[in-house]
């Protein structure tokens, strides 16, 4: 704990790094890091949970020098797993969900009542995605720039608000709903392309025991 219920967590992923004076390898630097702080505060009627998170992934974190038959680079390979399954590209990143070429910031808070009778939570997320971001990971890249910095090219800016709430109807049945408002500027890295949308979902959980 860093201060009265706050816990600090950090992760760092390094696949390749070399100084500018090194010329022995043409493999581009690939790294990323995450910083997360969480807080738990208990009161008589339940518990409050809060978090703050910052993520940075450089443009080539998930590339791992994998190429297609024509010599272009393939972003579909996971940089840690780095394999294909039944001739299909491995699409699940072992890393942050934002993928490569991203800067992300999230802050959120939730409350869970005693005995999980009900809950409510709100999360705000701001993401900057370069042209090698998650939406473009299928793209072919003919060259690599060792000096490329996140975000590359025309950056996509995403602001997202998530509101989630649930209520226990009885001992066995729990209902949960979620709504999200998403706003994009330079959508899918297309300059001056704007998009906004609302997403909603609802679910029921039935517990036998």
Please explain how this structure is put together:
With 209 residues, the chain is an all-beta fold. It contains no helices and twelve strands. The strands form three sheets. Strands 1-2-3-7-8-10-11-12 form an eight-stranded antiparallel β-sheet, with no helix packed on it. β2 and β3 form a beta hairpin. It is globular. The chain starts with 5 loop residues before the first strand and ends with a strand. The relative contact order is 0.14. The model is unreliable at 78-94 (pLDDT under 50).
Keywords:
two-stranded antiparallel sheet, mainly beta, 12 strands, single chain, eight-stranded antiparallel β-sheet, 209 residues
Write the SSE topology.
Layout: E1 6-16, E2 30-43, E3 46-57, E4 73-74, E5 84-85, E6 88-89, E7 102-113, E8 118-129, E9 140-141, E10 156-168, E11 173-185, E12 194-206
Parts with pLDDT < 50 across at least 5 consecutive residues = 78-94
The major sheet is characterized as: 8 strands, antiparallel
Distance linking N and C termini: 35 Å
Rg over alpha carbons: 21 Å
| Overall pLDDT confidence | 80
Number of helices: 0
Q: How many distinct beta strands? A: 12
Largest beta sheet: strand ordering:
1-2-3-7-8-10-11-12
Strand content: over 45%
Assign a percent range to the helix content.
under 10%
**Net shape:** globular
Order of H and E elements: EEEEEEEEEEEE
| SSE-based structural type | mainly beta
Quick summary of this structure?
Helices cover 0% and strands 52% of the residues. It is built from no helices and 12 strands.
């Amino acid at each position: 704990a860093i201060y009265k219920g706050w816990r600090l967590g950090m992760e760092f992923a390094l696949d390749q790094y070399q100084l500018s004076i090194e010329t022995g390898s043409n493999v581009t630097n690939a790294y990323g890091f995450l910083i997360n702080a969480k807080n738990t505060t208990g009161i008589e009627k339940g518990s409050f949970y809060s978090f703050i998170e910052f993520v940075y992934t450089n443009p080539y974190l998930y590339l791992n020098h994998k190429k297609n038959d024509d010599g272009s680079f393939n972003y579909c390979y996971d940089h840690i797993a780095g394999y294909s399954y039944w001739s299909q590209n491995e699409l699940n990143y072992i890393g942050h969900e934002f993928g490569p070429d991203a800067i992300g910031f999230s802050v959120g808070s939730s409350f869970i009542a005693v005995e999980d009778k009900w809950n409510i939570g709100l999360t705000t997320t701001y993401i900057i995605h370069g042209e090698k971001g998650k939406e473009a990971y299928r793209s072919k890249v003919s060259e690599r720039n060792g000096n490329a910095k996140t975000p590359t090219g025309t950056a996509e800016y995403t602001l997202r608000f998530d509101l989630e709430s649930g209520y226990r109807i009885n001992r066995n049945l729990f209902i949960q709903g979620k709504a999200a408002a998403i706003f994009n500027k330079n959508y899918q890295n297309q300059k001056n392309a704007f998009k906004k949308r609302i997403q909603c979902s609802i679910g029921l959980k039935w517990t036998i025991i």
